[in-house]
């Protein structure tokens, strides 16, 4: 079990009050009671209050491993955060599909604690996702990460069922078209069936369903996706989210999902963050995505923006009994060699995050003619700093995550 500092007993630093009555009593038992009695009482009080602070997932029928994972994410929050990487095992900068390889592993000697994978194009029945990762390989990677004690999160850049174009086709009316009664509702349901079949096929060695942090319809406060603010009203978004979660949970009986509500970077208040929130029964994790785009300089907005967002989700997670996280994060090509310790590590201190996910090390993208990567690879200028970040007590990579037995 994990060691949440919020639940740690400060008794070790307190000078114990002497129980006057027992001063007259003699013998080893009484001496032990004198010494440990107050600690014992404190232990009971703290255990009760820590247990009371745990909150269940939004799915009342969540599987045992899923419930345990959720409780363990709550426990580790405040003590540290899982560090994750998208597509970590499939490819990196200058390599693809090499068994056991990962850019983060080559820099730190350890795998990330959290693996992000992407479902886009699965809903069309494709064999490869939109970034060319074969779904059969993805399934095997998911199982590998889980069996080693890591955590799985899935995003879904779903194609637009109304127009048949990709996720970035933000045509107005797209969401209304897929809701019950909409002209593309049946198309959407068929697509959900494919996603559900994939999720249902994620099984551990004992046949148990692998818990997944499912992050559908992400960056919803942005303008760029068909489920974003251009494509629907707040009520339509909520209906889309609720329909999807209900369909997977109730119709498909998937009880291995922790649901991640995920906004884009910019929101100015708690109300704005929650404007399209589907409700506490439909979310377990509240999160945002954030990227740094320009090199840090005086007045750079990335850190102040990050601080503000963290404060908002700290407060909301406490108020609504949810877990807070960063769904996607990065600084493409990491032009600042001390970015991980100077910008991220210091800014995260004092905030209550369960995990962060660095976006994918796509390498050279020939279509866009650009390099894309967010974790350093061996030999990169930020590799030494990333190793320092790895060694910080708060950052949790796979070995530590495995020792925490997050599913027990
Ligand atoms: C984006 C980019 C794209 C990719 C998409 C889905 O942020 O990395 O290249 O296709 O995510 O993974």
Average pLDDT works out at 90
Quote the beta fraction.
5-15%
For the sheet with most strands, the description reads: 8 strands, parallel, barrel
Beta strand count? 13
Write down the secondary-structure element order. Answer: HHEEEHEHEHHEHEHEHEHEEEHEH
Task: Please name the fourth-level CATH homologous superfamily of the largest domain.
Answer: Glycosidases
List the strand order in the largest sheet: 1-4-5-6-7-8-9-10
- CATH C-level label of the largest domain: Alpha Beta
Rg calc: 23 Å
- Return the CATH topology of the largest domain: TIM Barrel
Please tally the helical runs, counting DSSP H or I stretches of 4 or more residues: 12
- Tally of structural domains: 2
Tell me what the structure shows.
With 408 residues, the chain is an alpha/beta fold. The protein folds into 2 domains: 5-51, no CATH class; 55-404, Glycosidases (TIM Barrel, Alpha-Beta Barrel), CATH 3.20.20. The chain is built from 12 helices and 13 strands. The chain has an 8-stranded parallel barrel. It has a two-stranded antiparallel sheet with strand order 2-3. It has a two-stranded antiparallel sheet with strand order 11-12. Helix 9 runs parallel beside helix 10 and helix 10 runs parallel beside helix 11 (383-391). Bound molecules: beta-D-mannopyranose (BMA). Beta-D-mannopyranose is lined by residues 118, 120, 130-131, 157, 360, 362, 372. Beta-D-mannopyranose (BMA) is lined by residues 118, 120, 130-131, 157, 360, 362, 372.
């Amino acid at each position: 079990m994990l060691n949440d500092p919020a639940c740690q007993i400060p008794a070790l630093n307190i000078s114990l009050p002497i129980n006057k009555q027992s001063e007259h009593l003699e013998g080893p038992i009484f001496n032990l009671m004198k010494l440990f009695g107050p600690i014992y009482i404190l232990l009971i009080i703290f255990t009760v209050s820590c247990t009371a602070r745990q909150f269940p997932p939004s799915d009342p029928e969540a599987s045992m491993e899923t419930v345990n994972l959720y409780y363990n994410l709550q426990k580790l929050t405040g003590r540290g955060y899982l560090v994750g990487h998208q597509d970590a095992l499939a490819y990196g900068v200058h390599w693809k599909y090499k068994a056991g390889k990962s850019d983060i592993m080559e820099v730190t000697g350890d795998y990330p604690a959290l693996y992000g994978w992407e479902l886009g194009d699965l809903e069309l029945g494709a064999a490869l996702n939109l970034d060319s990762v074969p779904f059969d390989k993805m399934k095997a990677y998911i199982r590998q990460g889980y069996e080693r004690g890591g955590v799985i999160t899935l995003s879904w850049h779903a194609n637009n069922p109304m127009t048949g174009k990709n996720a970035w086709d933000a045509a107005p009316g797209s969401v209304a078209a897929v809701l019950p009664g909409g002209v593309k509702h049946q198309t959407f349901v068929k697509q959900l069936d494919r996603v559900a079949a994939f999720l249902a096929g994620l099984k551990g060695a004992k046949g148990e369903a692998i818990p997944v942090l499912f992050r559908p319809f992400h960056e919803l406060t942005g303008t760029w996706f068909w489920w974003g603010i251009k494509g629907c009203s707040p009520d339509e978004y909520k209906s889309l989210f609720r329909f999807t979660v209900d369909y997977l949970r109730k119709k498909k009986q998937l009880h291995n999902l922790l649901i991640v509500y995920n906004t884009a970077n910019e929101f100015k208040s708690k109300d704005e963050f929650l404007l399209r929130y589907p409700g506490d029964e439909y979310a377990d994790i509240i999160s945002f995505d954030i990227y740094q785009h320009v090199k840090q300089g005086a007045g750079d907005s990335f850190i102040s923006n990050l601080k503000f967002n963290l404060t908002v989700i700290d407060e909301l997670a406490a108020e609504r009994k949810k877990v807070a996280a960063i769904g996607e994060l990065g600084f493409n090509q990491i032009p600042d060699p001390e970015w991980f310790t100077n910008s991220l590590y210091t800014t995260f201190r004092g905030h209550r995050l369960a995990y962060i996910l660095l976006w994918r090390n796509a390498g050279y993208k020939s279509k866009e003619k650009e390099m894309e990567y967010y974790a350093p690879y061996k030999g990169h200028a930020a590799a030494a700093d990333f190793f320092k970040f790895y060694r910080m007590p708060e950052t949790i990579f796979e070995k530590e995550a495995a020792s925490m037995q997050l599913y027990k």
